[in-house]
Each structure stands twice: as structure tokens, then as C-alpha cells.
Request: fold
Amino acid sequence: MGGDEAPAEIVRGAKRAARELGLPILLVGQPDRIAACDPGSLEVLACSEVITMHDDPGSSVRRKKDSSLVRAAEAVRDGRASAMISAGNTGATMASALLRMGRIKGIARPAIATPIPSPGSTPTVLLDAGANAECQASWLVQFAQMGSVFATTRYGIDEPRVGLLSIGEEETKGTPLVKEAHAMLSDVKGINFIGNVEGRDLMTDAVDVVVTDGFTGNVALKTLEGGLYCLQSAMLGAMTATDDLKRDFAKVWPALEPVIDGLHPDNNGGAMLLGVNGVCIISHGSSSERAIFSALRIAQEMVDHDLVARLAAVVRHEGD
Amino acid sequence: MGGDEAPAEIVRGAKRAARELGLPILLVGQPDRIAACDPGSLEVLACSEVITMHDDPGSSVRRKKDSSLVRAAEAVRDGRASAMISAGNTGATMASALLRMGRIKGIARPAIATPIPSPGSTPTVLLDAGANAECQASWLVQFAQMGSVFATTRYGIDEPRVGLLSIGEEETKGTPLVKEAHAMLSDVKGINFIGNVEGRDLMTDAVDVVVTDGFTGNVALKTLEGGLYCLQSAMLGAMTATDDLKRDFAKVWPALEPVIDGLHPDNNGGAMLLGVNGVCIISHGSSSERAIFSALRIAQEMVDHDLVARLAAVVRHEGD
Reply:
């Protein structure tokens, strides 16, 4: 029920995943609104309430017990579903997953891991991209561990390089949180910590996992999304401003389209809430059929590769 | 002496400003290295030392008393120059300006104000872009006041709209610092505070001045610079990948060039260190002749429009 184009695009993406990937899908939401989108033979878990983008995350999850978000998280908890995907209220998605699935034992705080496109190489995993506005240094260490497991599981990266987001490469740069996290990350075993990185490294092949607090991560993510959108619009607009230009532009477009496409959030499979006891994907609010299809494909992959057990193993190992 | 292309590009930009704008220029640096760049009739203030990009800002300013940065700041303090411009070590430029020129009375901390290009409208002024990694809420209020004066003086914006960088529009979003600053900014007179803004608003016409702490601001700035560079490179690379494409691309390039050019940091005149008792421009390390020329032009404008006195007046007024 969540997202700008819900439930129509959600149902369309789900049907495509059922058809092309053979995935068994459970649509969670209001039956009449889902029926209006022609869900075909997809199974529906009926619920009466919807948490909107304007609802307060914490209180709405407690109040709207029969909402699609809460019911979806319960379906994962109860083993009726293997993963949940939502394009709705991010805060409420996190709260539902956290309250109903619970945390992986030993994880202090779940974090949102968002893949940042890096032209010509695997995406950079940024976390926390917004789950925790304020963080402790020890949480950032767990984000590094979880991000490493995710980068390996999702992108097949061996010993992913982990960077700490700061305002200079020197370990003396940054806030007290960053300096403390730098010291702790330098000491911890089992991750490949390469030191501080800067915002300009996010879209490059210089680093595989970038760790930061949820405030800085969310600002960086939205700054990047906004900036890429503005530049792309300005460039495409200039190259198609007249009919003559449009004709010439049509000849270069086939070469350009894959680049634009590769950077589109619809293709990254969504952000992953790491640290809850189940696979939970947070899709962009603007998710189209294609975004939902990608998210379902990634959800299947993460379930098949046992992401949650891998995450649990890393933290369990730490306590030894 | 500072910057990747110093002193050659610096001297070239200065000569152009002298020629085209009739500006009296004082080159500060090592005479032999300046002479090798053919400074023509430009006046040279000789000094023996250079603070490099690798020097620690604080200690190098205290230790290298005959460095070009320290001498340039002294020239402004002593009235021998009206403004200083550096493409060198940012931290050392700030430290020199702060220690030699001093702060404007009533200003708690100077801040770096960086113009962010906004296609189709005036740039957005982002501050603090890196002077203070940790901030107090009251400093952010002064950044809002200084940023407003700067947006009016530099871009002629009447009652510039001031936004507070956060991770959601609601005043309940963000860190304790952001929430406290939100409350203070809502109360202060004389600025046009429009509430929280997000990273995606930076390159748009939604806001004129964006206030944040120097850590978040610097991360946002570098993330944006890196992202724009990556996207632009990827798009231009794809459209010129073969000789056939190059031929077609040549036809759209004249329409595209002004857009790319308008976003280039070389044309924004550099960042302004607001709050010190003199005009101080921090140019990008990669500054070319054109960047130095733009910075000199802006320096002249800010001196002519009495930026420092205007900044002082706003803070003095506050104490009434």
C-alpha cells in the first residue's frame, strides 16, 4: 500500500516477478484496492489499515495493528513470508520490522544500507543511510561488519574495503564520534578497514562500504540523489531544447541510455534494513514496476544466500 | 603559492584581472618562483616560506610566520590589501585569516560559505562548508544571519530564504543540534527562516541559504562535487565513445557546454570565509586562471559593497 504509485505499480512489479522469476508473492494490503489493480492469481493477505507517508512512524505502528506494514513484518516473523518489501513510510517500515521481527541477537541498532551507483564498478554500500540520526562509535563498528557481509553477499566482493565517512583522510579529522569510530575500526578484526573516506569517494571504486551515522548518511544520500537528478535534467534539457538538437541527440541517446539507466534508483533493488531478524527491503517512494521487480529479485537472492544468518554469525563471532 | 597549479595559474588569473578589471593586485609569495611565471608589472610582496597542503593548519601558521598565507592576511589587516584569496591549504587559510585579521566583533565562529550551483536560478549558499566540524546551535543562527547578508550582497537576493539542513522537513527530525537550532532560528528576527530542508534541495530554487554544521556541510559539498563529476564524466564518456558518436555529439555540444560551464567550480568565485575581519576567499585547490580571475572579481565586488561592514552591522544589531 506504500509508495507514490501504490498499489498499481507494486502489483505490476509483483506479477512480473511471479511470472519471470517464479517467485511466490504475498501481497499485503486492502483487498478492494489491490483487486482494482488486477493482481491475477497472486495471494493476498488482507488487512484493513494503511500507514501513510504523513503518519508518525513509532506511534502509527503501535496504533495501526492491522496495517499492511505491520502485517507484512508479522508474516516474516511467522514464517509465512521469507522477506518483506515496502515503498511506503521509511520510518514505519523500520519500526514494523524492528518491533515484529526483532533484532538479530547482538546487534545494537539496525541500519539502512543503500547501494550508491559507481559507474564501471560495483556499487558502494552506504550505511547508515537514515535509521539512526544519532549513533555511538560501537554501532558504527557493527555497521562496518554488517556492511561487509552485505557487500560480499550482494555483490560478491571479497574482503570489501570499508571506509569511514569524514572530512579528510587523516584520522585527526572529523567529529569526536568519527575519531572514536576510527580508533575502534582500526582495532577490530575481520573487516578490511581502509581509514577515512570523503563524500567524493562514494561514487568511485575507491571503497566498497562506507560507514557513517544516519544523519550524515541520509544527508549525503539525498544530496547525491538531488544533485544527480538536477545535473542529468539540465544536460538532457539542453541537448533536446530544439527540434534540430533533438534529431542529433537521438543519435547519441542509444549510447547514453545505459549510463542513465545504470544510475537510476529503480535498478538498485532498494535499500536493505540490516540487523533485523529477517530480510527487509526499503524501496524508494517513487518505485515503479521495475523497482519493485528489482527489489523482489534481490530479496530472493538475499534469502537464498542466507543473509540474516551470515549477519548473525559475524556478530556472534565477535562475542567469542 | 597555494593550489595544484600554483603559482603559474594564480599569476595568469591575476594578470587577467589587472588587465580586464583594472584591479591593483598584490602577489604574495616567493619572488623567484613568481618571477618564473612572468608576473609582468604586478606588485610582489616577497616572503620566504610556503604552507603546503600537507602542513598542519594550526601549527604551520604559528611556525611559518613568513609564509605567503600569513603575510597575505597581515596585508589585509594592515590595509595594504583589501581582500585575500588563496587556493592553498584551506585550514591554514582560515587559521591565517582568523589569527591575523581577527573575528568580526560579536561573531562566535567564522564559517565557510560555498555557492552551490542551481541550474536556472541563483546559487544556493551553503554554510558552514567545513570551518567548524562541531557546532553549537547559536553559531548556526549566526551562520544564518551571515549567509543572508552574503546572499543579498553577492546575488542581490531580497530576504533570502534560509533553510536548516536536516533529514526531513518536520521540526522533529534530525539531531539534537538541528532541533535546538530549529527552535532558535524560528525565534530570531531579521532572517527569513523557512524551516528544515534536505540535501536534495541544495541544487534547486527551493532555498537561498542552507545552514548546517561544518562536518555535515563539508560531507554534503564533497559528495555533491564527486557525484556531479562522476555523472558528467560517465555521460560525456558514453556520448564520445566512438568516432561516429563523436561526430554526432559535436552537434549537441554547443548547447550543452554552457550548462557544464555553469556548474564548474571555476566560475563560482570560490568560497567565502564569513566572520573574519576582512574579505577572504578560499578557492578550490584545482583553481585555474579562470577560477582565480572569478575570485578576484568577486573579491572586488564584496569590497565595493562593504560586505564586512554589513556582516558586522547584523551582529551588532542583534546585541541591541
About this structure: Chain A touches chain B through 59 residues (CB under 8 Å).
